[in-house]
Fold each of these.
Amino acid sequence: MSDVVQVLTDELGAAAIVSAERLRERATSYWNAAPTEAKCLVRPGSTAELASIMRICHAHGQTVVAQGGKTGIVEGAVSTAADVIVSLERMNELESVDTSDGVAVIQAGAVLQTVQEHVAGEGFLFPVDFGARGSCTIGGAVATNAGGINVLRYGMMRNVVLGLEAVLADGTVISSMNQMLKNNTGYDLKQLFIGSEGTLGIVTRVVVRLFPMPVSRDTVMFACESFAAVTRQLGLLKVGLAGTLSAFEVMWESFYSSVTAAGGPPAPLERGYPYYVIAEAEGADPGADAERFQRLLEEGMESGDIVDAVLPKSEAERRSVWNVREEFDGALPAYLYDVSLPIRNMETYVARLGERLLAWREDASCEVFGHIADGNLHIFVKPYDDGGHHETSDGIVYGCLDGLDGSISAEHGIGIDKRPWLGLSRSADELNLMRELKRLLDPQNLLNPGKVIN
Ligand code: ZN
C-alpha cells in the first residue's frame, strides 16, 4: 500500500477506502469497460472529510480525480494508476427544500433522478434532465455544466445553480451557498467551478432553483420533408405556445432509421422522411393546453410543413416516442460527437460533413440528432474502428465548423477527448487566462490533471 493510501486510511478508516485491487473490478466508465485504475478510491462522508483528504493529498503531491456517475463521454473523469479517486457517493442527501423560495440544497453525490423525484413530491420541477438521469450525480452535472433536453426553456445547469460549496486543491473550503436569485456582491465565484470538470475544485453541495411542476404535458412526434420546415415549426411552436415549449428534439433520417432498425425501439412513424421531431410543451391548464397544442400541429399539417405525426395518448406511448431519441445503444458503436452552431448554419454543416466523410473513406457516414433550439447537434460517425481513425474523424467533424460560428463542445465538455481541439473554439488569450486560473487555484496541478487544458 502506498504511503498516501495508508495516511488516508488512518485518517478516514478502512470503510471509506476502496482498494486499487477492488477498483479493477469496476469499469472505467459507462462507455469504457476497461478496469478502473487508481491508487485507491476515497469516499468522504462530509465536506470536512473531503477537506482533510485534499490536505493530505496536497501535502503528498498526490493527484486527485473526482468521479460522479461516470456517464460523461469526453474522458473527463478517467483516472490513471497514479491518481486517487474521490467519490461523493456517501454525500447524497437532499438537505432541504424551501417551498416558499423554490430552492433546494443538495449534496453533490445525489443522483439526478432521485432529486427530480424528491422535489416532484413537494410540487416542484428540477428541470435539468437528460438520458443519464438514473446514474449521473448532481455534482457531476454541475462540474460539467450538463445540458440535455429542457435547455431551451430552463437553461443548462449553470442557469439553475444559485450557490455552491467546493473544496480546493489545498483543502480550503469555498462556501458560496447563496440562495437568492439576486446577489451582486462581486465576482460570481460559483461559475469558476461550474463546467470546470473538476480541474479547479471539487463541488460538495449545491443550491439550485426549482420551478413550479407543470400539470399538463403534450407531446408529439412529427416528420418534415425539409430543414426549413423544421425550423419554421420551431418558431411557430415557440411563439404559439407562449414559452411553454420545453423540448424540441430533431432526428435526421440517418439516426432515426439506425436506431429503429432490428433490435431497437419500434418506429412510431414510418422510416424514410428526412427529419423527425419530438416536441413537448408543459403548462398549467390541461384542457386548453392540449387544444392549443393540437391546433398548432393542425396548422403545421395544413401548411404542408408537417407531413406525418403521432400524438401519444398515454405515458407508455409517450415513453415509446422518447425511446427512439434516448435508447440509441443499438446504433452504437460509433464515434460520438457534440457540437453547437447557429440553426441557420446547421444544414450547411451536415451536408459538408457528409461530403468530407465520404471523401475520407467510402464507407464513412454520420447519423445526426440534437437539441436544435440550443444550437446543439449530436453526431455518430461510423464505421467505428475501435479508436483507429479517431483523430481523422475528429478533424473532419470539428474542421467542418470552420466559418460557421460553431463550438467543438455544446454540452459534453472537453475532458481529455477534446483537449487537442480546444484552440478551434477558444482564442489564445482565453486559453492563457484559463491556464492562469488553473495555476492560481491548483499550482501543483493535482486536480483532474490533463483534463480541459494542459
Ligand atoms: Zn444532448
Amino acid sequence: MGTRSAPVAASIGRSPTVALLDEVQRQRARGVDVLNLSGGEPDFTTPEHVIRAAGAALEAGFTHYTPSRGIPELCEAIAAKLHADNGIVAHPGTDIVVTPSAKHGMYIALAGVIGPGDEVLLPSPAWVSYAPMITLLGGRAVDVPLDPHDGFALTAERLSAAVTPRTRAILVNSPNNPTGRMLTAAEADAVAGVADQHDLMILADEIYEHIRYDGRTHRSLAAHPGCDGRTLTVNGFSKSYAMTGWRLGYVAGPAAVMREVVKVQEHTVGCAASFVQRGALAALSEESRGCVREMVASYDARRRLLVGALGKIPGVSCADPEGAFYVLPDISRLGFGSSQEFSAWLIERAGVVVTPGSVFGPTAEHHVRLSFAASPDILTAAVERLATALATRENP
Ligand code: PMP
Ligand code: GLU
C-alpha cells in the first residue's frame, strides 16, 4: 500500500440526527410501530400559497439556473425581512446569498470565515452538524461547555477561557437546538464583548427565530451593538414555514465576506433551485403570518403537553423551552449508564425514538432531546409508553 492520506470525509462521523430519521423510516417500512420524537421536522404541510407559487413557477417554465446569490426579488424580500424583523441592514445585491438549505448556508458561511487551523468557539450543547462542518473546512471546533445547572448560560468568562491566538469566530444558535434557550441581552453583550476584544467573527444561526414562546422577543446578533460588521446571519425556511424538503436558506453579512461566500456557492451547488426560490418568496409574504402564528400556537400547546407529562415521571426533570421545538430533560436520576444507553433501551422497550443528549456534546450527557414537532397524539402516546416502560423496568 502507498501512503495515501485518509479522505477528509473520514475525519467526521455520520449526522446522528439524520441517521435516526433514516432509521425511523427503515423501521416504518418494515411495519414496526415507532413513535418518532427524534429529528426536528415539522409535521405540518407547507402552506398552500407557497406550494402554489412554486407550482406556478414550474408551470411557467421557471426551471433554469438563477444567479448564484439568488433571484433578485427574493434577495430584496430577504433584505426587507431582515430590516423589518431583525433590525439588520443588508444590501440585497452584495450582502445576501440564497442557499440550498440553511445547512449549506452555514457551511459556506464558515468557509468564508475560517481557514485551516482556525478555531471556532462552539458553546455546547450544540447542534450536531457545526463541528463536522468546521472539521471538513480544516478548522477546529472548540467546545465552550455550558452548565445545565444554570440553564446553559453563555458568559464572557466561559467564552474567553476558550480563546487562543487561532480563534477566528464564535458560533451562536438562538433559539437553540437542543436546549430551547434563547439568547438574553446579557449573553448577547458577552458575545459582542469577546468578539470585539479578540477581533472575532460571529456566526448566528437563527433558523428557529419565529418559533418562540411566552411573548419572548428574538435577538439578532447582527443588530446587537458591537456585533455589526462582524456577524454572518444564517437562516432558512425549513422550520418556520414547514419547508424541510424544499432545502432553502440564506446567509447575510458584510459584503467583503459575502463576496468570498458566494464563490463557494458558485463552485459547489451553483444556485438554489429556481422554482423553490419562488416558493420562498411567497413564504416571506404577508400571507404567511397567519400560518406561522397557527403553527407556533400549536407548538406551544405541544410544549405544554410534553413538559407537563414528562414532569409527572419520577426521576425526569425538564425545563420549559423558550424557543425552537425541543425539550432536553435531565434523565440522570433514572439510573442509566448514559443517554445513549437510555435511548437504545427506549427504542427497544417502547418503540419511542429520542435523540441521546451526548450527540450534542458532553454537557448534554444525562439528557435526551425530544422533538415536539410531532402531533399531540404521538406526544401523549410516547410519554405514556415511556412512563410504562420505566415503571415496569427490571433492576432499575
Ligand atoms: N441549524 C439548526 C440549529 C438546525 O436545527 C437545522 C435543522 N436541520 C439547521 C440549521 C438546518 O436546516 P435546513 O438545512 O433544513 O435549512
Ligand atoms: N435539525 C434537525 C435536528 O436537529 C433535523 C436533522 C438535521 O438536519 O440535523 O434534528
